[in-house]
Amino acid sequence: MIITEEEIRQEVLGAIEQNRIMLFMKGTPEMPRCGFSMQTVACLQDAGANFAAMDILPDPRIRQVLSEHSGWPTIPQLFIDGQLVGGCDIVTELHESGQLKEMVGAAA
Amino acid sequence: MADIAEIEQLIRTALPGSEVSVQDMAGGDHLYAHVRAPQFSGLPLIEQHRMVNSAVDHLLGPGRPIHALKIKTEAPQ
Description:
The complex is a heterodimer of chains A (about 110) and B (about 80). Chain A has helices at about 5-20, 35-45, 60-70, 90-95, 100-105; strands at about 20-25, 50-55, 75-80, 85. Chain A has about 110 residues and is of the alpha+beta class. Chain A has a four-stranded mixed beta sheet with strand order 2-1-3-4. Chain B has about 80 residues and is an alpha+beta fold. In chain B, about 30% of the residues lie in helices and about 30% in strands. A three-stranded mixed beta sheet of chain B has the order 1-2-3, covered by helices on one side. In chain B, strand 1 and strand 2 (about 30-35) form a beta hairpin. Classes of the chains: A alpha+beta (about 110), B alpha+beta (about 80).
């Protein structure tokens, strides 16, 4: 089965639209494949977030269409209510200040 | 190897009135930038980071002087 870039774009944008808290990462929450992704997952879990995740590693086009959409070059990328919140540094800072817990708990 | 003074100046120029301190974290290409700028007031962190990144965008990335830039931003109280 051949997957086109347009299908990947729809998958990525659909995930951002359909999941209030959406994390794009390397690996999975159960088995992160990068320290930055691992730390971001840990922050979200510690903040009690109920989040969806997509592994960007299986196809390089996932990262390509994601970064075109967000204008942000690095992985992980956390979206809340369709908006890019940030990567590992920003999520960590928001977690340490207690803001992440409010953001993941607040109603959409 | 990145020129720390040049990078500090680029950020100061992009954000007039800012206080900028850039440090080498490892090997001369993993840098840490601490930026306090009035322009950050009221903006989400992601937009604050974008403003710093865009000032040094042409130096950042694989094969360029800065391999990684960790950013800490704040607005003056």
